[in-house]
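ENTRY TYPE: protein
WANTED: fold as tokens:
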Amino acid sequence: MTKIRGTTRRGQVGFGALLGFVIGSAALSWRLEAQAPKPPLIFTGAQSDAGQSLYVEHCASCHGQNLDDGPFAPPLKGIDFRQKWDAPSVEPLFTFTSTKMPSARPGTLGEEAYAQLLAFILHENGARPGTKGLPANPDALKALAAPDWPRYGGGGLAPGVSLPPAPARFNPLDKLQPVTDDMLLHPPHGEWLLWRRTYDAFGFSPLKAINKSNVSDLRVAWTWSLPNGPNEATPIVHDGIMFVHSYGDKVQALDAATGDLLWQYSRRLPSGVQPSVKRSISIYGTRLYVPTSDAHVVALDAKTGRVIWDRIVGDPTLGSRIGLFTGQQLTGGPLVARGKVMMGTTGRLEGGNYVVALDAETGQEAWRFYTIARPTELGGNSWNGLPVEKRNGGSVWIPGSYDPVNNLAIFGTGNTYDTGPLRVPQEGFTNDALYLDTTLALNPDTGKLVWHFQHQTNGQWDLDWAFERQVMQLTVNNVPKSVVVTAGNQMLWDILETATGKYVGSMDVGREWGLQNVVTGIDPKTGAKTVDARLVPGDGEIKTICPHVDGGRDWMPTSYDPSTKMLFIPIVEACMDLVPVAEGERGNLTTGVRWKVRRKPGSDGKYGHLEAVNLETKRTVWVDRSRAPLTSGVLATAGGLVFVGGLDRMFSAHDAATGAELWKIRLNDVPASVPMAYSVNGREYVATVVGPGGSQSRAYSALVPEMESPPDHGAAIWVFALPAKAATVEKR
């Protein structure tokens, strides 16, 4: 039997740790049914030798040099291991290995490498190599016979031993009821059914048992380790069940009161497709609607996790095939309304991105709206004469909002990284570049554009206007009016009439704090922005721009309390230099610049900035500043509280009226998603997902070098509650 030679690499423990979890704790069983003889399972000695090198690099630090002497994980050879994986084929072992490891970047070794690793493990367990290579395909492995490793007795439950019945456990799936259209319009107070809970994107919880008077007693109710990796997803909760998306395209259903796992869906990604973060999933009827990293939307049975339909809506390899930075992705989340599942795409693509609507029942495509204007359409001549295949951008980063009064699905778009061809206007065209940095109001039944408003023409700085669109009632000229409120990275809020998109007004929060220096004026009638032409990059000079591309404020959403008209904003006080790159380099933008973080002029070293603004008066009510940059969205509640998380791994609660910090706790990793609240059987909970998120978890580390995140990270969900009181908490 082959022995491990050489030493292990230091610090590479994630692969083995997760493999140990899967093998050591997963309760797996297979029903062996009579079937026709299968071809034998064969691997080559060369595959096994290559797998040995992979094992040394990725696994031995946990499982040991000899596969059964590791300090941190169970053995990968021997009777217990073989009994756990005594299946009709090695396909389940291959699938677990190739989709769950390495823990920090699952599925990234390549299928051939996973086949080599499997060959080595088979060899170490007594299977004999042959002359034919082990296939690196799960379907092909499923068609082969089980390995010929020795099958000794022992391990598992001793023969003849009977077990007493397991304690009865309430399963909330047994009482799961369909989510109706009316529930999405008027969600029960204890439910969190959409990304921002309600169609208007307020992100506000009406729960108030956890409040200013008792939040200091808040404590951990339960935690649950999620598949490791970046995580920006907000869970949804319905009928006492929490559904949460995790990195590596996993969806788990958890008992929202206890954290017990009810089911898990795992998607196997095609070779060459990397997992990407998702910010939301949706529920309607008894189905979950889930975007995937290979640009599909999948409908899952909410009771079982079973796939009901699976529809491709994009091509994750497209961008890389045409030499662009990223392929097409679905990183936001679906908006479900009027029987449609509406999903925006992201990425650098020829012709740009789009919003696609699928029939919620069948998955069939109903319509598609391109976020880059076509040459013959409205705005088609706004691209400086570029043909459509040279236009790109218009990513839809987050789920849309829905206004049922006017029947409008409202989405926001980002800008383009390909700014060079738009920098200097060409005769006979404009370089506004519709529909970049635009609010789009679409008819969800037809996909037709009802109105649009471009917040920033020809954005040359990657300062997106792609974030939440909140639909609310505000008093305008002494008249109550339905308006759409939104802001981009610059923290410059625009207010528009919901029915028409007509400009109402603006609020420049960024300039007030020295965090917005690009826009120097706003037309009071049209909302058109005047910019400082000296700050347009591409002339070979360094440009100091405020804010940084990740904020100001970024995709992490605000929260709005309609009873007080208060908007709670997570801000990072940081700017950037747009630095010209060397000749021949592309840079972050095609004007030939790369962004570098810097503190704002006159900074005192505090970068976290939580601000409360009254939207009717447009006045700041309070600000709470901190050393740690803020990394999460905001949750405001009817209990008079505001929750937010930061780069120092602190999760805190503040007085919504004054900003005073009332409670905080340090988490195991950076909270980089959005906190939410729910209730089960009268008991209220506050939850947040942690895990190294997108760039907002990394961009500011140079400003606070003393703040270290765990090197190996640890995605998880943390759930908090007040101490249970027997008189008020019902038995389940």
Summary: The longest strand covers residues 479-487. The longest helix spans residues 45-58.
